[in-house]
């Protein structure tokens, strides 16, 4: 076969061109910061200790003249009482506030879904509130230690900045407490919980479905058997923060493409993002380039490009956001809760997602470097799988609620007007599934079955 004939028979496909890896380097630490609950409170704790040291130095440096003219003169005994009372009160306050918070979270978990607790962990307000209360407790506790030192220096009256700062912290704690309670109550409202997950999922979908201009035609190689397989493992050479097993949370695509380009090879990610990965399981498959020269990437080079944690996240896995919303709807449709209006609110958001991605170019899972050479292959879910994830369980659990079925019927009709015709089959299948489920539930009530299948954008609200 001549070169011209080979070129004519060459199979081309679309691949996303990856050029810049800086964005993920910013997103990764941001996500770890949001998912880390202890960092901000710990920072406030250290800040309280440093503040106690600073105010001690200020108090010791105040001269006799300042003592006599200061408007906040207090005796050593009074300062001791103020600080001790504040420390004791804040300890009790901390216990009461967070006991109430945990009870509220338990109720929200039972009513909505355990996955809504993720919003609580990621809430910056909650972390700042905890840090403020801890600082207000720790600061007077450490300030008490040097009051006797001031008294031994002959100060019967002490122009103590420590007491003033302690009172400011107490007032600040009250203000933060009001904000904390307000936001906690708002977070327990189902509309806010749904909106929080939906906004984050929408951002992740935007990242997953870039503009069509970013795709290029590349050769489709016959990869065959891999030349080398990288197993998931933990070692100091890879990334010490990795767990022995967990969920594949994200992949630094740009870094993977860069490594593959440097070694002139193709890398294939074995599991999907959001999939469980155990110690010793295959993670990457490596295929040598056409030239067959050069060394393949080492394990640490590729292992450091993945994030593996105890649970799925949304920032590189929008399907998890959809999964969380479907769980909220499924729990709302359970006999114990029986809140079909909540399920309809979830369907409103799911319709937004489906209309958002339905007309877009669907990802192929292929990534090329700046030269248009294929470097990375990942598994992606299809449009049919996305629709199945969003609608199947809600159809099953909500078939007995006319409010839910009417909203589902309208959703499917709307999607047919906004997505290409080649993506209709799965919508037709779900229309059939909905009709069969309603017919089965209302077999003895034909008229009610007809009402339940009438499309309505508001359900029965």
Q: What would you note in describing this structure?
A:
- By secondary structure, the protein is of the alpha+beta class.
- The protein has 18 helices and 12 strands.
- It has a 7-stranded mixed β-sheet. Strands 8-6-10 form a 3-stranded antiparallel β-sheet, with no helix packed on it. It has a two-stranded antiparallel sheet with strand order 2-3.
- A hairpin with a 5-residue loop joins strand 11 (366-368) and strand 12 (374-377).
- It is flat, with a radius of gyration of 30 Å.
- The N and C termini lie far apart (68 Å).
- Mean pLDDT is 83; it is low at 1-10 and 236-242.
Distance linking N and C termini:
68 Å
Mean pLDDT: 83
Helix content: 55-70%
Order of helices and strands: HEHHHEHHHHEHHEEEHEEEHEHHEEHHHH
- What profile does the largest beta sheet have? 7 strands, mixed
Helical element count?
18
- In total, the number of strands is 12
> Which percent range describes the beta-strand content?
5-15%
Structural class: alpha+beta
Rg estimate, integer Å: 30 Å
pLDDT < 50 stretches: 1-10, 236-242
Physical arrangement of strands within the biggest beta sheet = 4-1-11-12-7-9-5
Described by the principal axes of the CA atoms, the overall outline is: flat
């Amino acid at each position: 076969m001549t070169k011209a004939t080979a070129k004519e028979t060459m199979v081309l496909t679309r691949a996303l061109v990856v050029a810049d890896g800086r964005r993920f380097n910013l997103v990764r630490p941001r996500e770890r910061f949001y998912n880390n609950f202890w960092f901000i409170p710990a920072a406030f704790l250290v800040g309280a200790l440093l503040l106690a040291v600073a105010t001690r130095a200020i108090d010791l440096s105040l001269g006799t003249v300042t003592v006599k003219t200061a408007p906040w003169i207090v005796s050593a005994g009074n300062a001791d009482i103020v600080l001790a009372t504040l420390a004791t009160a804040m300890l009790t306050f901390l216990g009461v506030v967070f006991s109430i918070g945990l009870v509220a979270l338990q109720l929200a978990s039972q009513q909505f879904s355990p996955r809504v607790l993720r919003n609580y962990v990621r809430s910056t307000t909650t972390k700042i509130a905890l840090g403020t209360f801890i600082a207000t407790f720790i600061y007077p506790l450490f300030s008490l230690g040097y009051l006797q030192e001031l008294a031994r220096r002959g100060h019967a009256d002490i122009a103590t900045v420590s007491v003033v700062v302690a009172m400011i912290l107490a007032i600040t704690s009250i203000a933060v407490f009001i904000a904390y309670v307000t936001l906690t109550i708002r977070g327990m409202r189902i509309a806010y919980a749904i909106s929080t997950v939906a906004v984050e999922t929408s951002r992740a979908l935007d990242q997953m479905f870039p503009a069509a201009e970013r795709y290029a035609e590349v050769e489709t190689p016959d990869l065959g058997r891999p030349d080398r397989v990288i197993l998931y493992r933990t070692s100091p050479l890879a990334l010490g923060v990795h767990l022995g097993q967990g969920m594949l949370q994200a992949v630094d695509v740009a870094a993977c493409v860069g490594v593959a380009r440097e070694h002139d090879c193709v890398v294939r990610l074995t599991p999907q993002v959001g999939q469980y990965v155990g110690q010793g399981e295959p993670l990457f498959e490596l295929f040598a380039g056409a030239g067959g020269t050069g060394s393949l990437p080492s394990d640490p080079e590729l292992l450091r490009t993945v994030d593996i944690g105890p649970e799925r996240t949304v920032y590189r896995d929008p399907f998890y956001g959809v999964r969380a919303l479907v769980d909220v709807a499924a729990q709302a449709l359970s006999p114990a809760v029986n809140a079909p209006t909540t399920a309809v609110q979830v369907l409103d958001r799911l319709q937004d997602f489906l209309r958002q991605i339905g007309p877009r170019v669907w990802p192929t899972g292929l990534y090329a470097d700046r030269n248009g050479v294929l470097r990375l292959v990942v598994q992606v879910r299809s449009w049919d799988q996305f629709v199945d994830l969003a609608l199947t369980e809600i159809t099953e659990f909500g078939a007995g609620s006319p409010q839910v079925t009417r909203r589902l019927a309208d959703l499917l009709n709307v999607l047919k007007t906004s997505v290409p015709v080649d993506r209709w089959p799965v919508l037709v299948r779900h229309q059939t599934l909905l009709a069969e489920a309603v017919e089965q539930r209302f077999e003895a009530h034909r008229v009610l079955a007809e009402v339940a299948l009438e499309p309505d954008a508001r359900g029965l609200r």
